[in-house]
Amino acid sequence: MTRKRLLLVFAGGLALAAVGVALTPAAKLVGNEQPPKTLVQVQKETERSVVFIQAYAKDPKGELSPRSLGSGFVVPVDGKLMVVSNYHVVVGANELWARTAEKTVPPLELSVVGYSPFLDLALLEIKNANPALAPIRLGNSDTLKADDPVIAIGSPLGIPFLAFKGVVTKPDEMLSATTNPSVIISDVKVNPGNSGGPLLTTQSEAVGINTSIAGPNPISFSIPFNHLKAVLPRLKLGGELKHALAGAAIKNSWELYPPDYKAMKIEPPKQLGVLVVQVIPGSPAAKADLKPGDMILEATLKGAKTPIADVKAFMKLVMIQAIPDDEVSLLVLRGASQYHTMRLRLAERPGPSPGEDENDD
Questions:
Q1: Are 96 and 111 in contact (CB under 8 A)?
Q2: Which of 68, 72, 218, 280 has the fewest C-beta atoms lying within 10 Å of its C-beta?
């Protein structure tokens, strides 16, 4: 019922490692009928789009010194060029500077506009925008499939603008119900310094934001690009992105064993789905009379119905589509045949804390 929060590796140590206005397409996307491009071609096409980020913080004497390094990439937002990176790359920095692989582009001074610790995303303003910058091509992470080739570009170990190729193993996998609802898992090589850089198709289209690695033979995790597109209208307003909370711990029924049901004092459900295993007192779920053992079948937000086939679907709806104070209507199965419609007024999700690992929605 708990999952370990993944740790993000970047230079200097370890750190915690998605309607309205849309990203403006940089160019017409290349169709799948085009032959894949080589690693060198993708590097060349993105040399004015991918950036190496150096964060500086003041030491006890008040002098600036390097704090962390990472990567990012240039995107068009409402006709203006901005940079996307990871929150953990920029948090705590007093100054942010970046450069591209194109030597004619001078160092860029950046400032944080909006950020989400939960999604590990940061939207950055370019304070001295240069006409030589080029926005990256925008892809669709929902179209990724297992075994699709992908390329990670960034500055691993501080070596600028290295590219590595790999394949997708899981295009949309949930790892924790307290952080990003889903990630892209691949075997592409990323290292400290890659954080915030793009995961690209072989047509140079950004489909993810590289964020973490795990394991002795590391596998790589990237934030699906469509998560960014979904929350962009709120990120560009500035400040910390507020996420919604329903206030119930939920679990996929097929992940539970008989001892789990016995410990929770509930009967195993008659069908597969999303099971409520705990309700937080005083939460929106508690006020709506949601109870352990209830199965969530469907959710309606702003008139749009979403089938809830798994925990990931519910987490995406609550954390990415909804905002605090939104009303969500749930179709719930209680017992063998009792169907209930419950209306929840979503609360604001408290900020993440170190070691947090409860699967709360």
A1: yes
A2: 218
Catalytic position from the list 85, 88, 155, 182: 88
Query: What's this model's pTM, rounded to 2 decimal places?
Result: 0.86
* 320 and 340 assigned to the same domain: yes
Q: Report yes or no on 169 lying in a domain.
A: yes
CA distance 21 to 6: 31
The per-residue pLDDT for range 338-360, each reduced to its tens digit, is 999 999 999 999 877 544 444 45
Q: Verify that 96 and 114 share a domain, yes or no.
A: yes
- The answer to whether the beta carbons of residues 136 and 74 sit under 8 Å apart is yes
The CATH number of the domain where 139 resides is what? 2.40.10.120
- Confirm whether 243 is a catalytic residue: no
Whole-number mean pLDDT of the chain?
Answer: 87
Q: Which of 68, 71, 120, 186 is catalytic?
A: 120
**Phi, then psi, of 213 in degrees rounded to 5:** -135, 160
120 labelled catalytic:
yes
Same domain, 193 and 260: no
pLDDT digits (tens, 9 = 90+) for 111-162: 999 999 999 999 999 999 788 899 999 999 999 999 999 999 999 988 889 9
Range of the domain at 52: 7-239
Q: Which of 176, 195, 204, 220 is catalytic?
A: 195
164 and 213 co-located in one domain: yes
Residue 77 lies in a domain: yes
